[in-house]
Specification:
Elements (H helix, E strand, L loop, with lengths): L2 H12 L2 H22 L5 H8 L6 H10 L4 H18 L8 H7 L13 H6 L9 H17 L4
Helix pairs in contact: 4-5
Length: about 150
C-alpha cells in the first residue's frame, strides 16, 4: 500500500475527534443552559440602563447615513467624529441636538433619533436571524414547529 493512501486514511479517521468533542461540549452546554434559563429573573430597568451606556448605537448611526446615500467610509468617519464629540460633552449620541448632529453630516434628519435607541437598533435588523421583534417571533415559530415535528429522543 502506498504511503499516500495510509496517510489519507489516517487523516480521515483523526479529523472526526474534534467534531465529536465539539458535539459533546455543545450537548453539555445546552443541558446547563436549560437549567440556567429556568431560574433567570430579568431586571428590565438595569438592562435598559446598560443598553444605553457607551455608544452601542454608533453602528446604527453609520448604517443610517449609508441608507441616506453616504459612502460607508465617510459615514464611519462622521460617526467617529460624532462619538468623540459626544464623549467629550458627556452625552450619548441620542442626546446631541439635531443642529450638532448635522455638523457631522448634512444627511442627518430628525428621523436619526429613531435609530439611536436600543429599541430602534433592535428593530432595524429585520432579516432572517435578525433582532427585530417580527424576526424573533418568526424564529420562535419555526423552532416550535421543528420541535413538534421531530421530538427529542
Amino acid at each position: 500500500m502506498s504511503p499516500w493512501r495510509i496517510a489519507y486514511n489516517k487523516d480521515n479517521q483523526e479529523d472526526k475527534e474534534p467534531l465529536f468533542d465539539a458535539a459533546d461540549t455543545l450537548r453539555d452546554t445546552l443541558a446547563v443552559f436549560a437549567e440556567l434559563i429556568a431560574g433567570i429573573q430579568v431586571n428590565a430597568a438595569a438592562m435598559q440602563a446598560a443598553a444605553k451606556e457607551g455608544f452601542a448605537t454608533a453602528t446604527d448611526f453609520a448604517d443610517y447615513l449609508v441608507r441616506r446615500g453616504l459612502a460607508f467610509r465617510d459615514a464611519h468617519e462622521a460617526v467617529a467624529r460624532a462619538v468623540r464629540f459626544a464623549e467629550k460633552s458627556g452625552m450619548g449620541l441620542e442626546d446631541l441636538p439635531l443642529e450638532e448632529m448635522r455638523r457631522f453630516s448634512s444627511k442627518v434628519e430628525k428621523d436619526v433619533y429613531g435609530v439611536l435607541t436600543p429599541e430602534g437598533s433592535v428593530a432595524s435588523r429585520s432579516h432572517i436571524g435578525g433582532t427585530a421583534p417580527a424576526q424573533v417571533h418568526a424564529a420562535i415559530r419555526r423552532a416550535r414547529k421543528l420541535l413538534k415535528a421531530d421530538p427529542a429522543p
